[in-house]
Write a structure and sequence with these properties.
It comes from Haloarcula salina. This protein is of the alpha/beta class and 452 residues long. It is built from 14 helices and 18 strands. It folds into two domains: 252 residues, Ribokinase (UDP-N-acetylmuramoyl-L-alanine:D-glutamate ligase, 3-Layer(aba) Sandwich); 179 residues, L-fuculose-1-phosphate Aldolase, CATH 3.40.225.10.
Length: 452
Amino acid sequence: MTRADAPVAPPVVLTIAGSDSGGGAGIQADLKTIEAGGGFGTSAITSVTAQNTTGVQGQHLLPLADIEAQLTAVLEDFDVAAVKTGMLATSEVVDLVVEYADDLPNLVVDPVMVAASGDRLLEPEAEDAYEDLIAAASVVTPNADEAAVLTDREVDDPDAAEAAGRDLVATGADSALVKGGHVPGDAVVDTLVTGDEVTTFRHDRIDTEATHGSGCTLSSAVATRLAHGDDRTEAVGSGIDLLSSAVRYNLDVGEGPGAVHHLVQTRNEAARHRTSEAVERAVSALVEADVSPLVPEVGMTVAGATPYAETPDEVAAVEGRIARTMDGVRPNRGVRFGASTTVARFLLAVREHDPAVRFAVNCRLTDAVEDALGELGGAVPSYDPAERSTDTPAAETTQWGVGRAFEASEETPVAVIDRGDVGVEASAMVLAADADALVSRVRTVQSVVEEP
């Protein structure tokens, strides 16, 4: 039997950048990110670096004719929808790209000057050559240090970033994203200047040095979203969201700090079905075991987070919870993502301290249950919401309580007790890295509670 083919036509994205033998940055990072974002990645390599997570050991610039031949080959054959530039190394290469600017739609210019390791990747005399390339850019994405070089303006706070962005737009760029990763502060503030509009993107700073490839990944993600038809603000916002997760769930590879996780969102999306199935399996096991003594008055929720979950929409849970009936327990509805708020937010708060924890279930809190939790062989800290200071907003009680619980434990707790508050039922949240371990812990508590 001969089967008919079923071709697909993803948007083509071209990256013009250097090769990173370590795989975390450069062309390698670009192509991974483009493919993860649903684009078809093509490339024109400008230079070959001997590089890894510890630094750049060597660099070889390709002959200008070879770079031009790659550009011509791609542009003659492919309907390129977006382009990003990375390491261009010399003014001659920058000038070459400028010559092709009219044929480079949705051009995202990442003015790579220095590697994350501190190694210089651009000749000093090539800095001035960027002016014409930036003028042709749809988006230019300098970090604070690069923006300072390009604008002669010190970028040390969001106001200075906005001013630098306006300077870059004034040179001809459609928009400028001045990244805030190099600006001190608990939060990273990225500033997008587009004509008369300024948009800031704020997210918590990740406590890691594993940022190798971050600039490449962000600019490639933005270019890919532009290729899909997003406007510049949407494309930048999407790219920043990806990078935030890619930095938090970085890749522990090499002897250096590691690299960002270019495929973090793709891997997370692929795990949704398995996560949902695991929650369904846990629910079935608890229903079969008739865990009635452990079901709170408000009902029991079994929740499971995808490996890189950051929001409740990435947490699968029982819709409507598991309720007690005259004949045992049963779930009100099925399992779906975003079905839980309370347990999901508790689980996400726990994952801020230990991302390996992926499953949680809320249990009724009685003296017998609290005693039984001691049989789980791990830490079972508690917190009392009444002790929350007035400086902590009520909406942040869960984060505060989980933080207190982890401070009181030398290891990740097997369960955390919430003593309850006015109008809020006290509960015990049982935690685990996988669904089977969660069920086992709940069954252990149940068996102790039901002992004659």
